[in-house]
Write a structure and sequence with these properties.
The chain is an all-alpha fold and about 120 residues long. The protein contains six helices and no strands. The longest helix is centred in the middle third of the chain and has 20 residues. The protein is globular and about 45 Å long.
Length: about 120
């Protein structure tokens, strides 16, 4: 679990680093900064759910507004879904890999870890 928190934090930092100039961005960021901050500041099931809803809305609104999904958003959604819905996590990891091919080594590792966790149950 600690390894997943470290990876989730790393993904969040990567995504946050791209938020600085999001007003003119080709990406749709929604309220990512606020919900990510709240989730990191006060981790709870309610802040987690709020952040998952925010990330899901970012994906949906990016498509609706003809903007790109920001790097790391699908990966973070996958990490947040991994424990409760491995199938959904797998979809998000693969989507991140499709959107950002340079993420393939990390996404492949997360996908392999997900499969290992599923086999150990």
């Amino acid at each position: 679990m600690r390894k997943h928190n470290t990876i989730l934090t790393a993904i969040a930092l990567i995504v946050l680093s791209g938020c600085a100039a999001h007003s003119n961005s080709i990406y749709y960021w929604g309220n990512y900064s606020q919900t990510a901050y709240e989730y990191q500041k006060s981790p709870s099931e309610s802040s987690r759910q709020a952040h998952v809803q925010s990330l899901t809305a970012i994906v949906e609104n990016a498509v609706a507004q003809h903007k790109k999904i920001p790097p790391g958003i699908c990966a973070e959604l996958g990490m947040l879904q991994a424990q409760n819905s491995p199938e959904l996590a797998l979809q998000y990891f693969n989507e991140e890999k499709n959107l950002f091919p340079e993420s393939a080594p990390l996404m492949d590792k997360l996908i392999n870890d997900l499969h290992k966790d599923a086999r150990s149950l």
